[in-house]
Amino acid sequence: MLDFLFGFFSHDLAIDLGTANTLVFVKGKGIAIREPSVVARHKKTKKILAIGREAKKMVGKTPTQIEAFRPLRGGVIADFDATEAMLNYYINVVHENPKSFIPKIPRPKVILGIPSGVTEVERRAVQDAALSAGAREAYLIEEPMAAAIGANLPIEEARGSMVVDIGGGTTEIAVISLGGIVLNKSLRVAGDQMDDAIVSYVRLKHSLLLGVTSAETVKMTIGSAYQPKEEKHSVVRGRDLENGLPKSVKLTASEVREAVSPTINQIIESIDETVEEIPPELVGDVLEQGITLAGGGALLAGIDKVIAEATKMPVWVAEDPLTCVVRGAAKLLDDEKLLAKVRVTGGLK
Ligand code: ADP
Ligand code: MG
């Protein structure tokens, strides 16, 4: 009864704590926050200066005493204090209702999707961080599981469902059956590596020093995994490596594809390895149902086609792949039974 009342008045939250983006879903309202997972802070005093979009704007432009960085790097929590600050900030931003005459009461229930490479100790720490940020209950679920639920895959059935979530820092490959993860591979190769590859390519081929944010923009606008039908191009600006002066270069879609394709091949290799490990009883289902792609990397033009050709399996891009994890976690806010089945840790304070 008490729980019912809590649930009625509080804004329960689902959070996707991604390496590149943090999303917060507020029950009854929808996705309230979509911000880059970036924190800016003073190097010496450790004072937090900005979180999210504001902090991302500072990347590569900070004076020496300030650092702007991602607290979750390569699918692990690289900086716990910054992760905690980010979590605390987002939970309180949505929870603090200025119109409410009893602010912060009742406290929300929070379900967090985290990369599956996060260690047991770190999971505890994230859960504690959510509780100390004001959560009444905090549960953690693994990102590929949340992505599969968000993509409406039949995860509770005795059929193998395969999901590949290509994020910023990590690609998570998982096979799910009967509400559990049967097989799981997490590789530190995803969207960020494509950006870095574009930076190196432009440096080698055009002697131009390009910022990583510009590389990401190029990838999103003209990048593709497949040979494009029409050749698009984009003008990028950076610094000439020979004379140090600002310079512009016209980059073609084919060049971007050439730069990102080794990363895509690495992802395909890991998918192949995972498929080889699928238990015989499930392999038929997976071959038939195919692979569902989620995460921002799934938006790279033609990536589904390239993966399908290489693996000889059907490949689908989940609807709105960037919000798949948070929507999956949000579904669990209303499904206690499924939450109990799929959560990796969590409970009451
Ligand atoms: P994470 O879960 O690690 O936070 P996301 O699922 O939010 O990551 O995906 C972020 C990654 O997706 C970034 O590397 C970003 O560059 C990439 N991305 C987003 N949109 C596109 C697009 N249209 N084309 C290619 N890559 C994209
Ligand atoms: Mg993600």
Describe how the helices and strands are arranged.
Blueprint: H1 2-9, E1 13-17, E2 21-26, E3 30-36, E4 39-42, E5 48-51, H2 53-58, E6 66-69, E7 72-73, E8 76-77, H3 80-95, E9 109-114, H4 120-132, E10 137-142, H5 143-150, E11 161-166, E12 171-177, E13 180-187, H6 191-206, E14 208-209, H7 212-222, E15 233-240, E16 246-252, H8 253-277, H9 280-289, E17 291-294, H10 303-311, E18 315-317, H11 324-333, H12 336-342, E19 345-348
Parallel strand pairs: 1-9, 9-10, 11-17, 17-18
Antiparallel strand pairs: 1-2, 2-3, 4-5, 4-6, 7-8, 10-19, 11-12, 12-13, 14-15, 15-16
Helix pairs in contact: 3-4, 5-11, 6-7, 6-8, 8-10
Structural class: alpha+beta
Widest beta sheet: strand line-up:
3-2-1-9-10-19
The N- and C-terminal alpha carbons lie at a distance of 18 Å
> What is the strand content?
25-35%
On the 0 to 100 scale, the average pLDDT is: 90
* Largest sheet entry: 6 strands, mixed
Question: What sort of overall outline do the alpha carbons produce when their principal axes are compared?
Answer: flat
Which small-molecule species are bound to the chains here?
A: adenosine-5'-diphosphate, magnesium ion
Residue windows where pLDDT falls under 50 for at least 5 positions: none
Helical coverage, percent range: 25-40%
Number of strands: 19
